[in-house]
User: Fold this.
Amino acid sequence: MEHPPPSAAGKVFGDRLELAARYVEHLATSGVERGLIGPRETDRLWDRHVLNCAVVADLVPDSAKVVDVGSGAGLPGIPLALARPDLRIVLVEPLARRVEWLSEIVEDLGLSLTVERGRAEENAIRRRWEGADVVTARAVAPLARLAGWSLPLLRVGGRLLAVKGASAPQEIDRDAAEVHRLGGARPQIELCGHGVVDPPSTVVSIEREARPAGRTRKKRST
Assistant:
């Protein structure tokens, strides 16, 4: 095994550690060859990518319906599925070549995931997957734009969990008013994975509170 798992990975994945290791090897080989992962990332796939995403599971309710938007190389959706087999997850990705790769990996790992080609903002995707408990995203878009795409997919009380970096507080300050207009509560920062990843993963959590402002239905004139 060219990329052996760190000891912390056993705590996160348990008896599915072998599947997680196989996923990492896919990322390091065909993932790089097909442009889903940069070649410089192969030495930090576990900590920076797979474990960094898997620890978000701490914020996801039991048996939740999860929509992973802009899934790319399956991050964070596949690590979440490996860490939490109770979750019902759909990977939404617009690019055909990435969808093809994701479908191959999901089949090889034997995961009960759905891979869907499309964009979160498309009406067909919203109709098919609305009412989710959780929407996840990583490195997809700035917070306000991501909220605009993701909040309509959530049930009221559901949460957007966006894996972000050190600039998360600045994004929140800049975009909080627009998030509120879109029907979201004040964004909150959650740190996940203490003792598993260093530094812990930074996740921006936004609860869907209501319909977006200005989206109420107009009455028909008589």
